[in-house]
Amino acid sequence: MKNILIITLICLYVSFSKCDIPDIEVNAIESLLELYDIPPFDGCISNNCDYCSQPFYFLCDQTNSTIIKINLIGSDSSIPVFPNVISDFVGLNTINIENSIIPNHFFQISRTIGELFLNNCSLDTFPQYLNYLNIKMNDVSFNGDIDISSLFFIISFYLTYSNPIIMKNYKITNNRDGVLNIGRGIFTINNFLDFSMISNDFTFILGKYFNETSMMSLPNFYGKSLKIIDEHFNLPIRFPETITLYAERLQFEKINFVIVNNLNVSNLPFITLDFNNCSGLINQDTEYPMIVYNESRKYDGMKFKNCGLNKLLPNSYFQGNIGFIDISNNNINGPLPSIYEPIGNQSSMILDLSNNQFNGTIPQNFCYHTVNISNNNLQTDLPMCLICHYRLMRNYILGNNYTNIINGVIPNCTGLRFTSNSLYIFNEPTLIYGENIGWTLFEPENLLTTSPLVKLVSMIPNKRSLVSYSDVSSYPILKQNNFIINVFYKSFPFNTTFKVDISPPIINGIYPGPVIPDKTDFMLFGKAFQSSNQYENPTVYFNQLKCNIKSVNGLNVYCTIDTFIPDGIYNVSYYLPSTNLESKIFQYNFIRESPYVFKIISPKREEGGLVQFIGYFANFRFQPTIKINDKPSNVTFSNTTLIEINIQPNIIGNPLKYNITFDNFLNSDGDFRYSDDPINCSYCNELNGGGYCNTSIGKCECSNKYQGETCLIVSQYVSSIIPSSTEGGLATFNGWFGKGTQRDLKVFIGNKECFPIIISNETTIICNAPPGNGINDIQVNQNSANYTLKNSYEYYNPIRVCPNDCTSRFNGQCNTTTGFCNCFSNWYGFDCSVFNNQSPNLPSTNTSIDFNSGYTNLTNQETIFQISFYSLLEIDLNGEKVKEYQLNNNWIINNNNNNNNNKNNNNNNNNNNNNNINNLDYSFTQSIQNNGSCNITYRIEEIESTKNISFAGLNFKLDGGSIKTTISIENYKYSSNLNTLQLQFKSLATSYNNNNNNDNNNNKCNEKDTTITDNDQQGFVTIKKNSKILMGRFLNRIISDGKSTFISTSLISKNNDSVIIGMNLPHCISCQIDPDYSILISPDFKLKCEDPKNKRSWLIPVVVVVPVVTISLIIALAYIIYRKNDRKKFLNKLKMIELSNKNQ
Predict the structure, then answer these.
(1) Which SS3 state, helix, strand or coil, does residue 964 take?
(2) What does pTM read for this prediction?
């Protein structure tokens, strides 16, 4: 009996631990093993081999159920022809093949594979289509040419040759006349071609058969970096005098230039120009490079490294317009260049003069720049700036003979000091000056420390630094330290100090607010207003009138005088009590616009009568005259704030106009209306759909697409994004960006610009995204308006991670395309962690709908899980709530299902508003916002059998018995185009007293407190109560205005019994969201409390799905008992058997 048990366990062990590769993959592997003469695999039992045991050749996924990587090396003596088996590997993501013949069928596959590496292989012809995202080919031979259209849909492409003999005389063509957009690559070519390409980082290598005349047809390149290297041609090449390579960094390496006149790069937008190991650049007469650049422009850098220079570059290179100059590894002799001492706003330079023949002395001005002078013929004293920071700068100065360093002894640092005090201004860095105070070549905190803590960053080396104060160096702390900062240089070591002065407030100007009858608003602008609510209580006075402060920051003060003050000259002062500092008196000549009409009070049209003009009418000698549509009206009263007249009823005119004349020459004009006349608007951009005039209030009501008083300002927003891969590339932003001119359009992903803009119109922007990863904010700037959408751009990674890695290789297989687990037989859950043994003996479940509240109630024994769409919030850019609409208890039912029979008749505790569901199909509606313009529809329907669901480009399966609910949100009216929506979903766990005493006794041992765990970063939440579990998963993909896009989720609140999850939607007119939920029975659940043997593993799936809109939500409900302890012992036993087998 014991032997039978062991044999049984061994069989089970084999079935669990050996890879369960599909037959079609096994057949393909067998053919490859024979073709590539791979030794037999170990661990074969009855011809069932563990193909996952040799990962060098075949790498399996974590579940050992499919091959994800192939690595095969053919024999040099008998080169194999790769068979037609690639399509047989369903999970293949990486292919590495060497020494093989690759037929055309290798590339004729229906799905996309992540990576392809070919080394020393031969192809029939270069393929027309490449269904591989990243391709590296080295020493690959092929017949025919390469059309760039074959590279259109890949992320990176490398074609290189270590052995030029293999390379053939192929050409690149552009038969489809397209634009090549590729993340990065290295491309060995035999000709250039006049076409357009976009790339972040691309290198062209000139091949053995390069056509020198094609250099006159350079492509139009747009991107970050472009390099051209001559690795194989090795002959002089004539360059065109003007080139069109629009790269930020333009690099040439190993090129033997033939330049007839000059190489003109003055019109190119590059900011860095590199020549490395090039020849032919030097004019033999002037001995200068034959490069024409724009001397009035700023450049990040220029490099002429190892380019045959014998003479120093002209002085124009060293005047400050080029930030970095590298002329190292040449043969330049003579004195070091004469460079400037930075003054005012001039910045310092970085110079690499190493490995030349410079001689003479080191000018003092070199201390104010970062210069590498190593390995020259200098014989001179080392300046004090380099003595003080010798350890930091050692590698920049070695290889010379310094007369003040004797026997390796460095002189003492005697000249380091700060020559000015630092000025403390709240929230604003300030400058401090000194002598020999150092460089900031590395992180400042690694060079020095200060007490109190401030940040010192070198602006001009050894001369000027920027001081930034923080919360730990605020005014009270500085005061405690007697306004002295202690500085400790780590590399000497050396201590010094500098003093801190507190800047008094400085008023630079004052702006009055709008004219209001009963108060006067002002904004003071300047600096050092210093206010922090923790320790400042500033005051502002206009003469003796106190201006009550509303808000203060470092640069502006907003205050209000609570009365109407007359025009005149006011002495304005700003006082800080805690510092006892007061601004200089600022004389402010306050003159209101006069005459100015605040308000008109008029009679009804049919009645006529008294009209009052309320405003400001000062400094006039005579009584004004008034006309209504050129009809004079007698003035019955007037003073500096009020004019009264009487008018007749029904004066004809549309619109009516008034005119008030003061002192016979100064006029005030405007629209006039009877109190019951409609109020016309001047313009509301009606033709472009900007808005319409609300004649009851005389203001434009703008559509969602425009804003402003006349609805002319574009309310730009992004509703969906198609991101680039992590390598960069095309990114598409859908939304609304306005008709007409898009001035100064820029798009940022995080802090990196998406450049260049390829397409921009009123609904779409396509640009070339920089490389990156993770989740980023995006910003769209145009027409002096900025738009930000937070946590909205997720770089596409073709390989996605599944939850919990699908638990183990025995439980399920990760679909790395979608990030969903495909659970094996008898396993269930989002991460395949629950064992399913199918039994009818579990406590049954009742599902009901509350028609009043819209709740879905899931009842099992005494446990109730309640699921509902809790509320809809409008959120501003700072994440603050603008408006909130409660969705519960506001539903109106549209139809009743004809069949309201109980799904489970064992539960009779539902009230009259609950209907137990069976083949249901219910629909609810409600309207929100003031005029009910936003309609919300909520639908619940039953899915009878297993169904494949496709949502937002993702495919997954719902089991039979699922409940699908749909919420639609249409035409929400946003308060601002910067605002977004958040749909909140609530899950609640409660208990009730079941009248069935037998059930109560049997389930009493399962009663436990509610526990809630969440991981909103991965989109999971679970609620456990009474050994039942509600598990939720939230997809990070939605459909916004008909297009798939990324969203994030947030944990809003969590308490002992409930959790609220917020789904952060973009600015959309309609959105579709797709979370899902499951109910499980805990591993410690007991069918009968008195009988622990009944602790078994069961599963009854009941899935509730909720896709949304234009919001869609999926809720999966499932009942599971998991035999946890018994399974753990079983797995331990299998491990013991496995170890025993290995030791035999």
Answers:
(1) strand
(2) 0.58
